[in-house]
Amino acid sequence: MPIVTRISLFIMLAVIGNAWANPYAEQESRATALLERAVAYYQEEGERSFAAFSRLGPFTEDDLYVFVVSRDGVMQASGGPSRVLIGRNIAPLLDDQLRAGFQSILQAPRTEGIQVGEYRWINWRLGRVERKKAFYQPMNGHILAVGYYMPRADRANALNMMERVVAALHDNPALTIEQINQLDSQFYQDDIYPVVVDNETRRFVAHGYNRGLVGSQFETVKDNAGNPLGGPVVEQMQDQDSGEFSYMWRNPVTQQIEPKTAAIRRVGRYLVLVGWYTD
């Protein structure tokens, strides 16, 4: 194989490997490039750049946009839906954990260059709070930033959700089932949600995404690849109190059919499933 071809193949495999390792690699690349353009423009125009940052144009790119916050917490520019907050101190809108992180960002020295932080913020398009990763650059009395949402939860997030559901079921099963079916925010986070099955009737009693399944037979359910799902799970859990099961299911955030693994726990008469999607 010619040297050039081998090098090209190596680069292609490296890029593919990086995408598998980090499903947000493309968003990160776009976000940092947009921030770098915004920083260069700010260095040329100063605060006059805020007008350009706050309208559709070269500093908005699909779901990415530049926003600017002063060091005292006032939103000064935004190319996205948060433009409605321009002129307002956004610190009171943050929870305690986010407020602490927000203050550390505002206090970052100018010489540190581009920084990275994660927080939870409302996804205006979907009307719910999701994880967001922001790249930001302290500039004089301002923080220039570009962020993207990270709705894909991982195994640790799912197991954390499982523990909350199990504790709630032990405390008050009827209320917990009602809250799950009402999509209470404590039982719905990003792309993870619980499912509760009555192991005596083998019917869904709660579903954190599709309430249409409540009351239907769990054993007859197939996954989105047409493979049996409910039956094998029930059989697997006959003689054990916890387990895992992998299948194909539609991700409520991406609306794509993706591989999913569910953690399963037996809680009295109920089987609880909480799963996480993988790329």
Task: Please tell me about this protein's structure.
The chain folds into 2 domains: 3-149, PAS domain (Beta-Lactamase), CATH 3.30.450.20; 155-277, PAS domain (Beta-Lactamase, 2-Layer Sandwich), CATH 3.30.450.20. It is 32% helix and 29% strand. The protein is built from 7 helices and 11 strands. The strands form 2 sheets. Strands 1, 2, 3, 4, 5 and 6 form a 6-stranded antiparallel β-sheet that branches. The chain has a 5-stranded antiparallel β-sheet with strand order 8-7-11-10-9. Helix 5 packs across helix 6 (173-181). The chain is elongated, with a radius of gyration of 23 Å. The two termini are 32 Å apart.
Instruction: Indicate the percent of residues in helices.
Output: 25-40%
Distance between the termini: 32 Å
Described by its quaternary structure, the protein is: single chain
**Poorly predicted parts:** 1-21
- Helix/strand/pairing category: alpha+beta
CATH superfamily of the largest domain: PAS domain
* Beta strand count: 11
**Gyration radius from CA atoms, angstroms:** 23 Å
Number of domains: 2
Q: Which fold name is given in CATH as the topology of the largest domain?
A: Beta-Lactamase
Question: Largest sheet, described in full?
Answer: 6 strands, antiparallel
Query: What's the helix count?
Result: 7
Short description:
The protein is of the alpha+beta class and 279 residues long.
Descriptive terms for the model:
7 helices, Beta-Lactamase, 29% strand, 279 residues, six-stranded antiparallel β-sheet
